[in-house]
Structure formats: structure tokens, C-alpha cells
Amino acid sequence: MLDAKTIETIKSTVPVLEVHGQTITKQFYQMMFKNHPELLNIFNHANQRQGKQPAALANAVYAAAAHIDRLEEILPVVKDIAQKHRALGIMPEHYPIVGENLLAAIKTVLGDAATDEIIDAWAKAYGVIADVFIGVEAEMYKDAEQQKGGWRGWRKFVVDRKVKESDVITSFYLKPEDGGDIASYKPGQYITVRVKPEGQEFTHLRHYSLSTSPGHDYYRISVKREDAVNGNPAGVVSTYLHEKINEGGILDISAPAGNFVLDQTKEIPVVLLSGGVGLTPMVSMLETLLEDGSNRDIVYIHAARCGSYHAMKEHIDKLTREHQGQLRSYHVYESPAEGESCDKTGYIDLPWLKTVADPSADFYFCGPLPFMRAINRALKEWGVPEERIHFEFFGPADSL
């Protein structure tokens, strides 16, 4: 436990963190990777380059400081981060490295304002926060390993099938090379893929949502090829999977993880909304709802650039025909090609959403950040309470 003086000192730094938080975390990552380049085998280089990871860490540090006297209030955030840590293979021995470089970054950015008292207080606070993470993650490692078909660390999977779903999305059906059972998962969870493309100095890890319901003898991920755009280079892992990994190829996978999951205990209607490759967890949830004997009314809405970018359309259309009366599905195209039909042209907006969805439903959504912000804003304007609004970011947590 932290003493009152330490808590007071930490809280006094909250306004400073609000102003300088991202500068500190950018400095932190630069220092840490310089001192421990081996950690570049774990961290997502693209998120570093785009500033997403420093921003997410800055938000986490700010939240920890603001709640330092009641850390239990940020336990849900801790658990979200810990899920990703477990999936990536973050271990207890990594925490002292992080702490040492974080304190050094605070000192470097704040200069003389970072007094010995402040640095000592943050060292104590970091120790407490790190212990919370280590404890939560230890339980997650144990659960992942001890469940039926579970494992610890990385396990080799064979690409049993590779299926092109659209111009930019391809599905990979993965079976364990050892022929054993695989861990089950909750609809909405993800697995983590580790690859080392030829010519790359470091391994690259990516989380990919499982895009089918649990209960199969395989995992399916559906990956969008991230091409170079607006000065950003092509995605290292997505292009490698699309262009180099074929049926029979081997991938390292860590056990399913994630807290963005379908609540199957409820009986109220469900509305699933996806944009682009954000359909992956939504399709898993949809298939599960239709397979588990639930009588819940379901609306599934997918937004895509146009028909050639719309993955799994035939599959969703088939499910809609087979479950008439329970499932209604709609697709919205931003710029449909000539002759293409869709239920709405442009974007999903609140006036249209009100014509197809029930405001008393549970809403789940996933997709690009602008899409998610628009959906979240529409639902709030509609008066949907926060406890019925569920979403997940691809990559580090951002703000809607």
C-alpha cells in the first residue's frame, strides 16, 4: 500500500501529465528501445510510428495517477491491457525495464520540476501498479494454459485453408500442427500471430479477431491487406500473410484473449455494426447467436466502401435467409459501383439507424476509428445507455 504522502505527491503530478504525458511516453519508448532493442520483437512498430502506442500509454499513466488512491476503479482497464500483455508474452521480468525507463523519461522531460520527491513517489507507485499487472497476468497465463486445449506461449498452427473474401480481406483457417485440441474462446476474442518476414530484423506480432463461432477444430482469422496509403508504409504482417503464407504454411499463435465479448446471458435484442474488416468479431458473435438456441432478435449492419470490398456478403445473406424472422441484415456502401445494390449509400447515420434498429437493444460495433466515433456519437444522441454500448479498437485503446 502507498502512504498518504506518496499518494498526495502522485496526485499533484496529474495536471503535468495531462500536458506532458505523450511527450514523456514518446521519450520513454525511445529510451527503452535504445537500451533494450530486443523488446522490438514484441512491440508493434507501426503503432509506435503512428504515435498510437505512446498516446495509449500516456492515457493509462494519467488514469493510474488520477486513481492512485483507488486503483480498483481502473481494474477493468488493467484487465484489458493485461489480456493483450498475456497474448504478446509480456513477463514479470519486463516490468523493471519499463519502470526504469519510464522514470528516466519523466526526469528527462520535466527536468528540474521532477524533484527527488516526485521521482521517489512515482517509483513506489509504479511498483504497486506493476504488481497489480503481474498478478492479473499470472492468473491469465494459468487460465490459458490449463483450459482444455490450452497452452502457454506460442504454438505452431498450419494454414489448412486460405480463402479470398474480398479484394482486400482473406481468411486463414488454422489447425494445430501437433494435431491436439485447441482452446475454446468467447465470440469477440482474438488470437495473436507472430511472424518474422524475410529481411526483417525483428519478429512482428499482431492481434486478429476470430471471425467464426467457437466449437470448431480450427481457428479462423480474416485479415485485411494494409497497403501503403497517405505516406504510411504497407502493413508488414498483413501483406506477409496475404502474399507469402499459403495453405500448408506454419504460423506461431498464442491462445485466445480479449475482453470484448458477446454477453450471452441477456435476452434483449442485439444490434451488430461493423465497418470494413471490423466485421471479424461481429461475424463470430452473429454465428454464435444463431447457433446457441437464442431467440434474440438480431440486426446486423455492415458498412463497406463498395461491393468488391464487402467480405462474407454471401455468407451473411445465406444466414439471413435461413433465419428469417430472427435476423435482419443490411449493408451500406460508401461509393457503390455502377449497378451495385445496397440498403443505403453513404454512411450509417442516426435517422437511418432509427428505421432498422431497436433502441432497447445491446449494441456491439467495431471498425475504423472514424466509423466507431460516428456510431458511438449516434447511439449517445439516441439515448442508448453506456452499459448497452460495446466496442473494440483495433490496436491500442483510443478515445471515442
CATH topology of the largest domain: the name is Globin-like
Low-confidence stretches: none
CATH architecture type of the largest domain: Orthogonal Bundle
Strand percentage, roughly?
Answer: 15-25%
Instruction: Give the total of domains.
Output: 3
The separation of the N and C termini measures 33 Å
Write down the overall mean pLDDT: 92
Number of H/I helices: 12
How would you write the strand order of the largest sheet? 4-3-6-1-2-5
Whole-angstrom Rg: 22 Å
Structural class: alpha/beta
Report the helical percentage. Answer: 40-55%
Number of strands: 12
CATH top level label of the largest domain: Mainly Alpha
Fourth-level CATH superfamily of the largest domain: Globins
Describe the sheet with the most strands. Answer: 6 strands, antiparallel
Order of SSEs, N→C? HHHHHHHEEEEEHEEHEHEEHEHE
